[in-house]
Structures are given as C-alpha cells and as structure tokens.
Specification:
Strand order of the largest sheet: 1-2-3
Helix content: 25-40%
Number of helices: 3
Shape: globular
Amino acid sequence: MADTAMKDLEDFAITYRDDEIVVRRAVAALDERRDGEPVVRLVLLVLDPAGDTWDVERVRDLRHALGQRASELELPAVSLTLVPVSEAETVDAFAG
C-alpha cells in the first residue's frame, strides 16, 4: 500500500503544473526524522529557475500541494528537495 501511495505522490509531483517550476522526475522514499517520526523524502528534478532561484511563494504552493496529496494518500509529512537539471552530477540519482 505504501509503495503504491509513494508512486502516486511521485506521479502527482510530475504532473504538478506551475509557470515557473517544472518537475521532470520525482523520487520518494520513506524515512525517519531525527525524532523518530516518519517522513517522506521527496526529491524533485526540476528545470532551472529563470533567475537565480525559484520564487518562494511558488515553492510554498508546490510544498503545500504535495503535503495535501500525501495526506490524502495517508502518507507522513513531506520533506522536499528541489534539484535543478543543470546540476549534472545529481541527475544520476534519477536514473532508473
């Protein structure tokens, strides 16, 4: 069940639409925080921002949408990491 929910969360991330943040790949993993509470670590491969970085409000909107979807799927809280496509050494994490 958790594997299916994690895949659904990854698919949701990939299909999320925003004018500025375009998700190319998503990898979710169940982990524990330092306090022992479960957390979903979600790493997103995204197109590079048009400027120096992504707009904070848009990242908040993305984080909120992913958190809502995780809750609907009965998954724990989401820890989000955005990785720009230009960071070639990190792209290997998405191979597979």
